[in-house]
Amino acid sequence: MNTRHPRESEFFDFTRAFTTNDRGERVLAGLSLTETNEYFAYIDLRNSGRHDPAALKRQLELADRHERARLAIVVAESESRGATKN
Q1: Under the phi-then-psi rule, with left for phi > 0, alpha for psi from -120 to 50, and beta for the rest, what region is 49?
Q2: Is 84 exposed, middle or buried (0-12, 13-18, 19+ CB in 10 A)?
Q3: What's the alpha-carbon Rg for the chain, to the nearest Å?
Q4: What pLDDT does residue 85 have?
Q5: Burial of 26: CB neighbours in 10 Å, binned 0-12, 13-18, 19+
Q6: Which of 4, 33, 52, 66 has the fewest CB atoms within 10 Å, counting from its CB?
Q7: What is the pLDDT of residues 56-74, one digit of tens each?
Q8: Over 46-64, what HEC string results?
Q9: Tens-digit pLDDT profile for residues 2-42
Q10: Which residues are within 8 A (CB) of 75 and not within 5 positions of it... i.e. 6 or more apart?
């Protein structure tokens, strides 16, 4: 499972980055468990000072898909809150 630094997990929760898939696994919105692990493996590689140019294109594809799904969740929550105020 995606165990990250507690402060990082709080940020991801606040920004609605994580969701739960149909098997009850905590994954990045829009990504499978395998893709979530792949995404974080690349982030960890980059943060360690190493860089894999071949993996960059894939990481950007995953990041784009994740961000689109995450924003859809944020918009839906915002619209839901607005509907309850009227």
Answers
A1: left
A2: exposed
A3: 15
A4: 61
A5: middle
A6: 52
A7: 899 999 999 999 999 999 9
A8: HHCCCCCHHHHHHHHHHHH
A9: 555 556 778 888 888 999 999 999 999 999 999 999 999 99
A10: none
Q: Can you give the pLDDT at residue 1?
A: 45
Q: Which of 2, 17, 9 is nearest to 62 (CA)?
A: 17
- Bridge partner residues of 26 (DSSP): 20
pTM for this predicted structure: 0.80
What is the Cα–Cα distance from 66 to 47, expressed in whole angstroms?
Answer: 19
| Token code pair at residue 74 | 């944020």
